[in-house]
Amino acid sequence: MKKTEKSDLNAVDISLDDVFARLSEIYESGVTELSLHDASLASDSEKLCSLAQKFLDFAPDMFVSVVVEPHALTKKVIEMFSQLYSSLEIPVRGTEKNGTLLFDKKLFSSKAAMLNSSGTVFGFEMEWAVQTGDTFRQFRDRLDFSVSLYPNHIDFPQFEKKEFCIPKSTGIYSSKDIDFSRGMAFACLVFYTYGRAVPWFLSVIKPLKISPSSFFADFEEWQLCNNCSFESGFKPAAVAHKDIEKMQLAFIREKYEEKKCTQYLAAAEDLIKLNGAFSRVAEEGEESVVKTSYNPDDILSPYAYDLAQFCDNVTMEECSVKVFAASDSPDYKIL
């Protein structure tokens, strides 16, 4: 699901040293969320462990978002942050060498596997046309690869600045490709991140037989036609998740019809609606009743990871499903 929106430490003039020295005081003052973007912290495993212990000791209920470089994600760091209400933000960038951008997929794969195994929430931060040697093809490859690792969210810092920063075109990254990248990134931000799509995204696009980047490129065209693109000034943070879910469902129907795989559409819609309802219970405390075409026990099982096999082997069963808050986590029951 989309991470909880966080306060900006810089906006309230709190330094990392202040957090270490005055966390108990900050917590007792009523602050519930902190975001830490500190270069010295991001690369220092020992300091990250010390920070996690500080939160465990003095502010166990406070949400903390921390930027962490992938090489600093040791087993101990991950284990400690898995005990916190936290999100680790991992920059997805390459290493510049002699004008070429090298990207270590093995490093990111191993760290993501550790994070997913521990249940630690993490997201990726990604840019385009910023590093020397970057190309449109490499950006698309980074985006496809990142989605395959099941991050909770993918953010693009270039959109978060007060004025959007337009990268300069180069001999290997044209202005046209920069525009394509921006549209693709914004589509990903809306559909995947603000759409809280991580639990179902790869399952739903599998029948379409297209890459995530191609899917986002198509969604950007849909956004342009429906006045909800970057160019139209659409602000996903200002829109209720239920409204973004309506956009997701409308676009998925269109793509399944285009690719002639509507026999899997009902299952795909069930996945989107049920997971969306769970996310709204967790994030907004909003309970709901969802009409499904399959039994929720089936649609929420591992069998639904492959919709083609699922639909070939599972019988449809119309249900009304109440999704509600339980003691430990959201739950559901068939009405």
CATH superfamily of the largest domain, by name, is: tm_1862 like domain
The arrangement of helices and strands along the chain is: HEHHEHEEEHEHEHHHHHHEHHEE
Low-confidence regions: 1-12
Structural class: alpha/beta
Bin the helical content: 40-55%
CATH topology-level fold name of the largest domain: pyruvate-formate lyase- activating enzyme
Tally of separate helices: 14
| N→C terminal distance | 25 Å
Could you name the CATH class of the largest domain? Alpha Beta
What topology, given as strand order, has the largest sheet?
A: 1-2-3-6-7
Give the integer mean of the pLDDT values.
92
Number of strands: 10
**Architecture of the largest domain in CATH?**
Alpha-Beta Horseshoe
Instruction: State which percent range the strand residues make up.
Output: 5-15%
Whole-number tally of structural domains: 2
How would you sum up the global shape?
globular
Main pleated sheet = 5 strands, parallel
- Structural Rg: 21 Å
Description of the structure:
By secondary structure, this protein is of the alpha/beta class. The chain has 2 domains: 16-272, tm_1862 like domain (pyruvate-formate lyase- activating enzyme), CATH 3.80.30; 273-334, no CATH class. It is 47% helix and 14% strand. The strands form 3 sheets. It has a 5-stranded parallel β-sheet with strand order 1-2-3-6-7. Strands 8-9-10 form a 3-stranded antiparallel β-sheet, with helices on one face. Helix 1 (16-28) packs parallel to helix 3 (45-58) and helix 11 (241-258) packs antiparallel against helix 12 (265-284). The longest helix has 20 residues, at 175-194. The radius of gyration is 21 Å and the shape is globular. Mean pLDDT is 92; it is low at 1-12.
